[in-house]
Structure formats: C-alpha cells, structure tokens
Amino acid sequence: MNRLKQWSGSLFARILGIAAVCIIVPMLIAMGIVGYNVSQSYEQSTMQSLNSIVSEKVKELSIITEGQQSAADAMVEDPYIMDYFEKLNASGTTDQAEYARIEDNITEKMKEANGLYENIFFTHAGKIYMDAIGGKSLTHVLKADTDPWYPGVQQKPGPFVSDIMTSPVSGEAVIVVGDVIGGDEAAASAKAGGDPDIYGLPLNVNNLLQDVVQHKSNALLNTVVLNRSGEVVASSNKAQIMKVNFAQLNSEGLYQQMQNANSGNGFVTLDGVRYMASFEKDSVLGLNVVTMQPVSVYMDRVQSMVGLMLLITVISLIVALIVLFLIVRSIIRPVRLASTQLEQMSQGDYSGELPEKYQRMNGETGQLIRTLVKMQGTTRGMIHQVAEEVKTLRSINNRTTEAFRETAGRIENVSATTQNMSAGMEQTAASTQEISASTREFETAIDTIANGAQQGAEHAAAINDRANNLKQRLEDSIALTGKVYYEIKGGLDQALEQSRSVEMIKSLSDSILQITKQTNLLALNASIEAARAGEAGKGFSVVASEIRVLADASRETVNQIQGITSEVVESVSSLQDYSARLMGLLTGEVAADYQMMRETSDNYINDAGDIDKMVSEFSATSQQLSASVQNLSQAIHEIALSNNESADNTEEIAEEAQRIMDRATEVTDEVRKTSDSAERLSALVSQFKF
After folding, report:
1. What pairs with residue 203 in β-bridges?
2. Please, what's the largest Cα pairwise distance for the chain?
3. Transmembrane segments in this chain: where (predicted)?
4. Are 200 and 120 in contact (CB under 8 A)?
5. What is the 3-state secondary structure of 94-128?
6. What is the pLDDT of residue 128?
7. Which of 146, 486, 568, 662 sits between 20 and 30 A of 645, alpha carbons compared?
8. Whose CA is closest to 233, among 176, 171, 165?
9. Helical H runs in 500-590?
10. Are 181 and 85 in contact (CB under 8 A)?
C-alpha cells in the first residue's frame, strides 16, 4: 500500500495521469458529438428515403386511378353501347339479345380484373339496370345515402371518382369510377337534376391499393392508405384495415400535419412499435399514403456505428496510452537518476557518475542532466580547493604566531625611549610660551591698522564694481531696447501688412452671398419643377427644400463673417495708431534718458577709481608691516606647536606601542582561533567523497 501511495505521488504517475486525462476526455467528447451527428444523419437519411418512397406510392396510386378512369371513358364512348342505350331511351324496351351480349362483356371484364372490381354496372332511370355479378344488384335504387357520388353526377353529368364508401352490395370499402353513357357529348346535352345513364366501376379499395402498400424489396417498410378521417383503408396487414385510426394513435403531431398539409413526416406508435413515418396526400382521391419504418431499424444501424467507433476509440486509446507510457518513462528515467544523484550529493557523496547517453539527450531533460553533472564537477573542485586552502592557512597561522612574538619584544624597547624624549620636550615648551605672549600684543595693534585699510580698499573696490556693473547693464539695456525696437517694428509692419488680407475676406463673403442667392433661386426653380412633376418629383422637391435651407444658413454665416471682419479691421487700425505712438516714445524720450544715464555712470566710475587707488596704497603699507610681525609671531608659535606636538606624539607613540602590544596579543589569540577553524574545516572536508 505504501509503495502504491509513493508511486501515485511520483512525477511519472502525475504526468501520465494528466496526459491520459487530456487524451481520454477529448476522445469521449468527440465520440459523443460524432454519435449524435451520426444519429441525426441516419434519421435525416431515413426521412428522405421515406419521402421518396411515399412520393412513388402516390404516383403509383394516381396512375392506377387514371387508368381506371380511362377504361370507364372508353366504355361509355363505345358505339355499340351508345347505340343500345339510345334505343332503350327511345323505345323504353329491352333488346334481350343485345342486353345479354353487353352483360357477357362486362362479366368477362369482371373476371379478368382478378378481384379489382367489386362490380361493373350500368344505370338507367335512377337504378341499377345491368351488372356483372349475376344480377345481384339489379333494381338497386341510387340514393344519396347509399351512393353519395350520384347527386353530384346528377347536378353535373360527366366523369366522376367517388370518395371511399361502403358498397351497398358487398359492404366492403370501394371507390366508384365512372361516366355518363355517350361521354362528353352526352354530358353536355344532359339536363341537370335528371337521371342520366351511367357506367360505373366500383373498385375494391383493398385490392386496388395492394400494389401501393406492398414492398417486395424491403420487408421492414410498411405502407398504409388512410381516408379523410384517418382510418386505414389499405394495408399489407389486413387486420389493420378499417380497424386502425391514426387520429386515435400516439402520432406525435403527425396526424395534425395530415389535416393541414399535403406532405410531411414524423413519428407514430402502432401496435407498441414506434415508427418513423412520411405521408403524402393524393390529389384525386384525397387519400393519405403513409410509409413507415420502425425506429429500431435505423437505431440498430446507429448503435452498430457507435459501437464500431467505441471499439476504434478504445483501441486508439490503448495504443496512445502505451506510447504515452513509453514517452513519459523515457523522460522520467533520467530525472529519477538525477534525483538519486542529488540525494547522494546531499549526503556528501560526489563520486557517482550519470550515464553518458543521458548527457547527450536533447531538450530540458538533457539540459538538466548536463547542468547536474556540471554542478557536481564544480562542487567537487571547490571542495578539493577548500582542502588545499586549509593546508595553506594552517602554515600561515604558524608563521604569523612566531612573527607576532618577535614584534612584541621590539615594541617594548620603543616605549622606553619615547618616555625619555617626552620629558625634555616639556621644558622647551615652557620657554616658547613666554616669547609668544610678547609678540602677540604687537601683532594686535598692527592688525587693527591693517584691518581699517583693508576695509577701505574693499569699500572702494565695491564702489568701482557697482559703477562698472551699472554701466554694463545700461549698455545691455540700450542694446536690448534697440533690438526689441527693430523686432517690434518689423513684426508690426508685417502684421499690419498681413492684416490687409481681412479685406479679401470681405470680398470673398460678398461672392458667397451672391452664390447663396443664386442657389436659393435654383432651389425655388427646382421646387416648382418638382411640383409640376407631381408624385415622381416628390424626392427632388425634398432635395430642393434642403438646398434652400442650406443656402439660407450660408447667407446668415457670411453675414456673421462680415460683421467679425469689420471688427477686425477696426482693431487693426487702432493697433496701427498705438504702435506708431509707442515707436515714437522709444526713439524720443527713452533714447535721451539712456544717453544721460550713460554720462552719469562714466563720472561715477572715474571717482570710484581715484578712491580705490588711494586706499590701495595705504593698505599695502599696513599689510607689509603686519606681515613682518605675523612672520615673527608665526615662527615662535610654530616652534611652540612643534615642541608640543613632539611631546604629544612621543606620548602617543608610547601609548600606541602599548596598544600595539595589546592588539598583537589579541591577534595572536585570533590566529590561534583561525588555526582551530582550519582544523575543523579540514575535518569537515574529509567527510566528502570525490
């Protein structure tokens, strides 16, 4: 169990599991989508096939009905029969020989029909006059309740096809096809509401439609024929005839389609079996021909296809998993070896080697192996170098300890000598302090005189500098004023010249006003022409109206532009006047003031120069005297400082020597600690294998 948990948490198991999920889930989704599409495709294909079959069945029914109608038309236009009934109508008596001959003829036709005809009859005076079933229907009076086709023939003599009805002779479902004796000519001369002589063919519906409902090439198909009320009137299964009504079945909306459309398809459940059905209505008889196929037939095909797809998917999945297993294993194996190698290195064993073939691999795995090998070599070299450095450090520590011992002895001798020098220097310092006090008083008096002269010189220099600065600023101001004057003058001249283009705007505005007037006039003419054109010119009238509005807006805009242009012209004129006044001020009063200031600054500079010269001479004399005294005082002071510094330095040397001895002792202790660390590092390095 622990081994299984360890394997399930491994990188190999996780990669394999993720890859398997990424393969299995899309394959299952694809299989579901394909299965659904296959099911829909089979359903549509089956529906199209049923639609084609039912269309052929309806055509077949139409051909049969038209054939029987043609046979009836041929019989009523037979000269012999027409002649017989003309004589009958004229004399009112029956020619038995002729009667027997016609009767034998229709009886023979009855036998040749092989059950297609339920009877063949002629009518006369509103009742059956002759039949082909041995006289069983003779004297049957034609009435609307037993013969619903008869009132229609009375009202409109001519060819007819009845709806499905129950035969008054046999009680079976029949369709009566017939025509009046004499054909179209007789139908044209017959009186509406009379009793015309009729030739009728009662067709047995079940026998008539047997060819329609049979499927010799496909026993899984089932075709039935329904009357207007949804009852089955023809079927290959006789138990369904006149006993099954689609209006009472679970037809899932199929029967409602039959009531509202001439063709369609859907589903119906019959005898516990769910069928896919397609129907089409015969335009002559008004019958619905329905062709059905059990849903299980195409579902079996779908299931077999889905099963085949599932088998292919499983096989593909197994092959993919095997290939995936081999690929993942080839990736994980070098990673496992690298992990093992890292674990050994973490324990200090760097002697292991990874196979050369894994180092030559491409991709991230090969890069990982090569990096690990490189890291192992680098670490191994570093450990070897540390071991060598430990040996070197141990030797250096030994030599350093010996050198510090010799230094400590020499420092003790230096300390004794410096103490003797310190005592002599203290005596010299006392003598120099007395001489320094006398020179300091004389130096103070001379410094006072020198400071006064120096301050006078500084004030004179400051006056001279201010005068020069004033003159320079004045010259700069004059130059700048001249430059600005010419720039402003040039800019104003150019601006005034350019401002004259405003007058062109006024001229252009006048032109635009003329254009808007012409545009408005054209729009008015266009509106008049559009009104003349009437309905056809309405669109052009709208365009003309929009153009007139645009012209009015343009006229208002131009008027505003002309008003603004007038204001601009007035502003430019005022600007020109004020600019002329400004230029006159600069060239007149301002230029005279600048000249007067220049002369004043020159006089100020000359006076400042004389004062500076006098103060400079006095300051130079006082500075020479002060320098001589300062040199003497400085010499005495430097002697005292040098003596004091020498004494201090001597004491510091002694103290520093003592500190060096103390520090040497500390360093000796640290060297000993370093030696101990080197010993421990050597012991640590000895634990590694390389």
Report:
1. 117, 175
2. 197
3. 12-36, 305-328
4. yes
5. CCHHHHHHHHHHHHHHHHHCCCCECCCEEEECCEE
6. 92
7. 662
8. 165
9. 501-533, 538-585
10. yes
CA distances from 46 to 40, 237, 279, 299 (A): 10, 22, 13, 11
Q: How far apart are CA 519 and CA 671, in angstroms?
A: 111
Per-residue tokens: 512: 């635009």
Q: Is the pLDDT of residue 302 over 60?
A: yes
User: Looking at per-residue confidence, does 74 or 184 come out higher?
Assistant: 74
pLDDT-based confidence at residue 516 (cuts at 50, 70, 90):
confident
What token pair was written down for 665? Answer: 């002792």
- Is the pLDDT at 226 greater than 70, yes or no? yes
Print the SS3 string covering 401-431.
Answer: HHHHHHHHHHHHHHHHHHHHHHHHHHHHHHH
Query: In the Cβ-directed half-sphere of 459, how many Cα atoms lie within 13 Å?
Result: 10
Residue 291's φ and ψ, nearest 5 degrees, are -110, 130
- In a 13 Å sphere around the CA of 499, the CA atoms on its Cβ side amount to 18
Contact 500, 549 (CB under 8 A): no
Joined together, the tokens standing for residue 467 give 């005068």
> What do you get for the CA distance between the two ends of the chain, in Å?
38
Q: Which residues neighbour 664 within 8 Å (Cβ) at sequence distance 6 or greater? A: 404, 407, 408, 411
Residues in Cβ contact with 116 at an 8 Å cutoff, skipping those fewer than 6 apart: 203, 204, 207, 208
d(C-alpha 125, C-alpha 158), whole Å:
16
CA 196 from centroid of its chain's CA atoms: 82
Task: Give Cα separations from 55 to 217, 234, 687 (angstroms).
Answer: 17, 17, 97
3-state SS, residue 148 = coil
Distance of alpha carbon 413 from alpha carbon 660, whole angstroms = 13
Residue with the two structure tokens 């064993």: 349
Determine the number of helices (DSSP H) and then strands (DSSP E) in the chain.
15, 11
Q: Is 230 helix (H, G, I), strand (E, B) or coil?
A: coil
Residue 125: partners with Cβ closer than 8 Å, 6 or more residues away: 195
Asked if 548 and 524 count as a contact pair (C-beta separation under 8 A), the reply is: yes
Looking at residue 349, the DSSP 8-state letter turns out to be B
DSSP state for residue 237 in the 8-state scheme: S
- State the Cα–Cα distance between residues 668 and 591, nearest whole angstrom: 90
DSSP three-state, residue 348: coil
> 175 - beta bridge partners?
203
- Report whether 355 contacts 337 (CB < 8 A): yes
What pLDDT does 1 receive? 56
658 phi, psi to nearest 5 deg: -65, -40
Low-confidence winner among 75-84, 357-366, 404-413 (lowest mean pLDDT): 404-413
CA distance 204 to 170: 10
Q: What does the block give as tokens for 338?
A: 């690298």
Q: Is the pTM of this model over 0.70?
A: no
Q: Mean pLDDT across the stretch 281-301?
A: 81
Give the pLDDT score at 224. 87
Q: What is the pLDDT of residue 52?
A: 85
C-alpha 516, offset from chain centre: 52
Q: Compute how many other C-beta atoms are within 10 angstroms of the C-beta atom of residue 88.
A: 20
Query: How do residues 459-511 score in pLDDT, each as one tens digit?
Result: 667 767 776 776 777 677 777 767 766 776 777 677 666 656 656 766 776 77
Least confident of 252-261, 287-296, 432-441, 550-559: 432-441
Measured distance CA(618)–CA(613) in Å, rounded: 9
β pairing state of 222-226 and 127-131: unpaired
> Bridge partners of 121?
131, 200
> What are residue 268's phi and psi, to 5 degrees?
-150, 145
Q: Find the angle CA(272)-CA(44)-CA(308) to the nearest 5 degrees.
A: 85
Give, as one character, the DSSP assignment of residue 689.
B
Q: Are 185 and 159 in contact (CB under 8 A)?
A: no
Query: Which of 239, 192, 237, 190 minimizes the C-alpha distance to 214?
Result: 237
Q: Which residue has the tokens 């343009």?
A: 554
Task: Give CA separation, 439 vs 291, 435, 623, in Å.
Answer: 146, 7, 17
